[in-house]
Amino acid sequence: MIRGISQIVVFLVAVTLLTGLVFYIKGAVKARANMPVPETEEVSLHPEVSVRSVSTGSYNAQITGYGSVSPHFELTLTARVAGQITMLSNSFETGKRVKQGEVIARLDNTEYKDALAQALKDLSDAKLSLLEEEREALQAKTEWESSGLTGKPDSKLVLHAPQVAAAKAAVTAAQAAVKTAQADLSYTRLAAPFDALVVARSVAPGSYVQEGAAIATLYSTDRAEITVSLSAGQWSGLPDMETLNTGKWPVAIGHAQTGCLWTGYILRASRQADENSRQQSVIVALNHPLDSDTPLLFGAFVTVNIQGPPISGLWELPGSSFSQKGEIWYVRQDNTLASFTTEPVFSHGESIYVAPPKGIADSSRKVLIHPLNHYLDDMAVTPVEENAHE
Fold it and tell me: How far is CA 117 from the centre of its chain?
C-alpha cells in the first residue's frame, strides 16, 4: 500500500516539473521575440584599388643605348712597292702612337733611285729628240716655201709634222715615267697617313715585303665613334633629324665596367633601318678619346645616355600602370573605373611617360598602379593612395 502511494507522489512531482518547464520555455521564447533585432552592418562590395594622383607635366626623354668604341678610321697600311725593310721607327710599336706624316719604316731604295735616274735620262733624250725634230720641221718648211711650189705637200712627212708629234708624245711618256719613278721612290718611305695608334705591326727589320703586303694596322686617334641602335619608340624621344645631324647634341658615355663617364655628341643619324633588327642607328662621337684624363679605349663596351628635348602634356607613371592589354586605368570623380589605350611616349628606369587623352589631361587624376585584367569600365571601386599604408 505504501509503495503505491510513493509511485503516485513521484508521478505528480514529475508532472509538476514538466508543466513548469513548458511554461518557462514559452516565456523565454516570448521574451526573446519581444527583444529589438540588431541592425546588420552593410558590407561594401567595392574593391580597393591602389592609385597614384598624377597631373600632366613636361619631361625629357632619357634614351639609353649600348655599343662598342670604334676609331674614326681603321687602316691596314700596305706596301706600295716591294723591297727589304731597312729601318723601323722607335714609335712603330704595338700600343704606341704616331703622328701624321711620321716615317715609321723604310724600304731599300737603291733600285728605285736607279729607276728614277734612268727615267730622267730618258726624259732628257726625249726632249733633245723633240728639239731636233722641231728644227728639222722648220728647215723643211723653209725649203718648201723657197722651192716655189704651191699648195701643200702630198705627204705630211715632207714637213716633219708626224715626226714632231711623235717626239712630243715621247717627251710626255718620259715625263710620266719620271713621275712614276719619283712616286715609287717615295713609297719606300712608309709614313702614317694620320695621327694613329699602332694596333698591329706585321714587319721586322730585314724582312722583305711584296707590293701590297700588310705593314701595320692603324687606328686614327682624332675621334672615337659608337654606333647605337635604337627602337622606334626610343627614336620618338629624340630631336628631329636635322638637329641630330648638326653634330652638337650632347650625350653621356659611360664605361660598362668601370663606370667612368665622358661627354660626347651625336655625330650623325643613319637614314636606314637594319634589315634584321629593323632598328635605326645614331653615331655618337668623342673627340681625341685617348687624350682624356681617363682615356676611352677602342673596343670598350659602353652605355650611351641621350636626353631628348622636353615634351609637355605627359603623365609620369610606374611601369606597372601599363596593363597587359596596353591600357591605362584611372578612377573618375564618382569612384568608377575608366581606361584608355595608349603607348608610352618613352620610358626611363621604372617609369613610363604617357600622353593622356585631351578630355582628362586638364586636371589631376587617380591612376591605378596595378590594374587587373578583369577590371571593367564603370566598375565601382574604393581608391587607396599608393602611399596610404606607408
Answer: 55
Q: What angle do CA 85, 89, 91 make, to 5 degrees?
A: 140
Classify 44-72+222-390 by CATH class: mainly beta
CA 49 to each of CA 180, 324, 328, 339, 388: distance values in angstroms, whole numbers, following the listed order: 85, 17, 14, 14, 12
Give the start-to-end residue ranges of the domains of the chain.
44-72+222-390, 73-107+189-221, 109-187
Q: Which residues contact 227 (CB under 8 A, 6 or more apart)?
A: 67, 70, 281, 282, 283, 284
Give the C-alpha separation, 80 to 193, whole Å: 14
**Mean pLDDT, range 14-26, rounded to an integer:** 65
Residues 6+ apart with CB under 8 A from 84: 107, 108, 206, 207, 208, 209
Residue that has been written with the C-alpha cell 715615267 in this structure: 177
**Averaged pLDDT score across all residues of the chain:** 88
Query: Does residue 201 sit in helix, strand or coil?
Result: strand
Structure confidence at residue 42 (pLDDT): 47
192 and 218 in contact (C-beta within 8 Å)? yes
Smallest Cα–Cα separation from 87: which of 113, 109, 116?
Answer: 109
CATH class of this structure's domain 73-107+189-221: mainly beta
Closest among 238, 294, 296, 292 to 269, alpha carbons compared: 238
